[in-house]
User: Fold these one by one.
Assistant:
Number 1:
Amino acid sequence: MKTIAEIEREIVDEFAIFDEWVDKYAYLIEIGSGLEGMDEAHKTEENLIKGCQSRVWFHAEMKDGRLYFTADSDALITKGIAGLLTRVFSGQVPGDILSADLKFIDEIGLEQHLSPTRSNGLLSMIKQIRMYALAADASLKSEMK
Amino acid sequence: MFDVEKVRADFPILEEKIYDKRLVYLDSGATSQRPVQVVRKMDEYYLRYNSNVHRGVHFLSNKCTEANEEARETVRRFIHADASREVIFTRGTTESINLVAFSFGEAFVHEGDEILVTEMEHHADIVPWQMLCERKKAHLKVIPFLDNGELDLGQLDHLLTEKVKLVGVVYVSNVLGTVNPVKTIIERAHAVGAKVLVDAAQAVQHLPVDVRQLDCDFLVFSGHKLYGPTGVGVLYGKEALLEQMPPWQGGGEMIREVRFERTTYNELPFKFEAGTPDFIGIIGLDEAIKYVQHIGLEEIAAYEHDLLRCAMEQLKQIPGIRIFGEAAQKSSVLSFALGDVHHSDTGTLLDKMGIAVRTGQLCAEPTMQHYGVTGMVRASLGMYNTREEIDIFCEGLRKVGKIFRLG
């Protein structure tokens, strides 16, 4: 299993081949279109990220101590961003997710989406992922006691 | 003769670069930019004359009070009201409507009565009435619109009954751009004894508005869509009606005498202006109106009409475009969808090209529901927009279409 930092490096390398912002966004849209999406049953109010202009859902499942994420959105750029996040975080242990210091967003030039007021709510997505990780981490620790 | 370049020179923000591209600002329907004259005037008052208005004995207070009241007179002339005491300053259109919903509602709306609005209203002209209806056990009824964006006036026959106490109608729709036949609606409403509030938030900056000619009972608008400051708005109301309405908020300036046993209220317009007003904003609004009047609303309307027609023609050429709102009488708003591309994707990509548009539900969810969409992209024009900017905008849309492989 690759580490969060290794997956981030891969993403940065993929985006590095594009000089123009248009191509970066086109790639993001391609990622969004290619993303499998999620089970309709998981598109619940609970999984809906608040504060986005488009609707974004994140669903988390715990398997063998690791968190697996699925995501979906009705907007493709947002879905592409969500896809990058699930790729980075899916299959990781909650402790690693919580201690991750995300760098790839800045490095691929999407940092403008990080502002908390941005309508596509990248920051809200990351917050949601961390909340899942926090809850999973707490339940793991209580199991160990 | 209208000279757009001369106008643009008064709006330095239009020269700003966004991501290294010159800003193309197509979001004036949300808030317009302010000319230097407005900003300078407010600066001058902040830096040289700032002092609280009304009842001050000293020079500065008098200076600000005079300017505040001169602004009221400017607004009166601007909308052709009979008297400046019919002009009440508020924080904006939304507050103006809430004031009427409360005060008119207290005086005139009872259980079983009806309030009538149109399907294309902004939330600000829906929710205050719903709150009123809940308070008074009254009912909210809706005048629907047709798919082309025009009101279905045929429905008035059965909707306008003597139960209707007030009709709230938007002069120019913030989504569809439709210029509604408010004069006809006012006549029809008056015939059954209903009063009419006209939401002119998207009208006063685009066309001459005359409350006497319309014979509306209330008319509301905001400063910041009229090239003036944010946080200032206007409520016009017929004097005889305002006199019969109780005050909304209590506090300073709205009182005559305060006794613990009983407080009496000030005369119009102060009865409805509790607390320190944003007098410097009001002075800025005065300057904004003078600026618009100096250019001339007839000239602005003619120029914007040409610009809109040119934009509509070009937009229709874009593969996959679906335009919402094609009323015969339409003002400077262009709402659309680009194929099945999500509005936020279109908006995000246009933003990267330096083009500012608004996306989403545009504070008009019922209008979205009418067309069965979750949101739209809206370009709204101001008097400073140019044909060249329309070209850049349409070119940008084609680029978005290409990224999404439309057409």
Number 2:
Amino acid sequence: MAAKNKTLENAKSMSIIVTKGSLDWAYPPFILATTAAAMDIKTTMFFTFYGLPLLNKKLNLKVTSLGNAAMEMPMMGMHMPMPNIVGMIPGATAGATVMMKNLIKKKGVASIDELREASVDLDVRMIGCQMTMDLFEYSKEDMIDGIEIGGAATYLEVATKSDINLFI
Amino acid sequence: MATQTLDTSGLNCPLPILKTKKALKGMAAGETLELLATDPGSVADIAAFCNQTGNDLVESGEEGGTFRFIIKNNG
């Protein structure tokens, strides 16, 4: 039997820099953060640049095939590639987003809203980047409760003490 | 006989782990949780979860496409 690791000195810790806020890229950080926290790993997420809007009270995430050269969608037993040229057609992003959301529901995958709620419940420390807030004109009032605001130094202090540091 | 049963059938990663954690949190030390899952990834993941959190994976098996685990909560 593994020893309990809830005591401070041997507890593990993880930090994640979250830089992308599209529907697909929002999954890896929130899946890892919630799972780590459930495994008694002290977890911190630092939301910067396009990752910052993931802290907005109301999420409206989209997925695009643009720049996702390897993206394929399962369809009628096959996989349909999504060439970049398709992504440029008006309505393609909305279509891809609807398709992805349907797949998420059908396959029993949690929504980002659910995973974010679980992060709050599991005491994941969430830090919004002050500079990104200034740059893109966001205010703390637009964001969910319980988050902190900080900068690079705040993140690095956490990172130097963490067993796992990820950039997503 | 397990103290409590949790059915996560139809749910995908990481929901079985998150729901297991929540269930164990509400249980006393020494009590056992029977967990049902259909996610094939849960076989490796539940074992890893138990290893990391110090709870005992007493049983792990499959019957008719449903995975069944017995986890002893070590508090």
